[in-house]
Amino acid sequence: MMHHPRRPAPHFALLLLLLGGCTAVERDFAGVPADQLWTALLVAAESPDYESQPPSRRWFVRRNHVHADAAARHISIERELHRVTLQPTTRPLAERRRWRLELALIEGDPPRVRVTSRGWSTRAAAVEEADRLFDELAMLLSTGGLPIREATPPAPAGPAPDARPPALPPIDIDDLEPSGG
């Protein structure tokens, strides 16, 4: 009798393919100078915004280690997130995510950003994180939320304006009439 080595079931191999490996997502940023896009990438990597997500889906950053190589226009991120999801009639669900992300600015016309997830996650989760980053970049670029490199103008000379509201007259409770009488 011949002994054949056991092969993994096809569905197990498919599961490994879906859960592991790298996922890369790219987006063009037409009309944005490469230097401005690089600055936005640095801001988004060093201070990620998860506050704009709905409270039931909001992640909190526990650890965010960023290494940027300006000459290569490349950023490596190791990030750990956590959240506790509360739903009615269920127990709180504690979740953690660990990201190993590589961000690359690809110069050209238009400049492009590539986000590569190198950790164990589903492709859907990696694409969702890349989309969150792209949305954050678009917000930073559109609102001017980037750090200003120019000197701030000095404050105007003279006395500070009075910021207090004007005084209101006192109200005597006996003067109030009952409503809906």
What order do the SSEs take from the amino end to the carboxyl end, as H and E? HEHEEEEH
The CATH superfamily of the domain at 21-143 is identified as: Fungal kinase associated-1 domain
Total beta-strand segments: 5
Give the helix proportion (percent range).
Answer: 10-25%
Give a structural overview:
The protein has 181 residues and is α+β, with helices and mostly antiparallel strands. The chain has a domain at 21-143: Fungal kinase associated-1 domain (TATA-Binding Protein), CATH 3.30.310.220. It contains 3 helices and 5 strands; from the N terminus they run αβαββββα. A 5-stranded antiparallel sheet has the order 1-5-4-3-2. The protein starts with 9 loop residues before the first helix and ends in a 38-residue tail after the last helix.
Brief overview, please?
With 181 residues, this protein is of the alpha+beta class.
Which labels suit this protein?
single chain, 181 residues, alpha+beta, TATA-Binding Protein
Summarize the topology.
Blueprint: H1 10-19, E1 23-28, H2 34-46, E2 60-69, E3 74-85, E4 93-106, E5 112-117, H3 123-143
Antiparallel strand pairs: 1-5, 2-3, 3-4, 4-5
Helix pairs in contact: 2-3
